[in-house]
Amino acid sequence: MLKFFLVFAFLFQSSAFADTKLSIMGSLLYNTPETEDLDDVDGIEEKSGLGFGVGLRALMGISDQLYFRSGAGIIQKNFSYEVDDDVTGSSGDFDLSFIYLNIPLTMYWKASPQVGLFGGTALNAKMSDDCDASGDFDTCTIKNEKALVFPLIIGFDFSFNEKIGLEVSYEYGLTETAKDVTVNTAVASFLYHLD
User: What's the Cα-to-Cα distance from 119 to each of 66, 70, 155, rounded to whole Å?
Assistant: First the structure.
């Protein structure tokens, strides 16, 4: 699967290289976990977390208004679980953090000179993970974390001027981040257009 996406991205890049628009991105991510069967468990609460990202966005022209949107970046997905002492007899937090190499694989439609719409997926390759326990808990482990994660992505961007823009997107977790855990993410990115 990884080879397919890499070959796909390379073919689009090489065929449209002459009409490529590059932007530097700085992102803020709001990550919300969805853990299977946790809704029925009393005393454990899922908590959303903020993460950050940096990267390079590439729009590779297919036609006047249609582009292949790709690039590369590093993103951080943080979230946590809070355990309630009144129900479980113990209290504390489990704070999880995942760092990914992010390669978007989306189609982009330039609706106007200022606004574009995009959708597709991304290849998120895990670079590292961390789990910190606090309160009554000494250790924290992540079970069966996935090396590759694919979200469904929809979003839009807006250019304030020739150099500065804003991109807003939502990523729905199509695949698990770890055993029985998917993560949905709202992303706001500031763009600096290089051309």
Answer: 12, 11, 6
- Alpha-carbon distance of 120 to 175, in angstroms, equals 14
pLDDT digits (tens, 9 = 90+) for 171-190: 999 999 988 899 999 999 99
Q: What is the mean pLDDT of residues 115-136?
A: 93
CATH number at residue 95: 2.40.160
Please tell me the pTM assigned to this model.
0.84
- Give the model's pLDDT for residue 86: 67
In a domain, 133, yes or no: yes
Domain with 160, as residue range(s), is 2-12+50-193
How big is the CA angle at 87 (ends 85 and 89), to the nearest 5 degrees? 50
| 89: region left, alpha or beta (phi > 0 left; psi from -120 to 50 alpha) | left
Average pLDDT score, the chain: 88
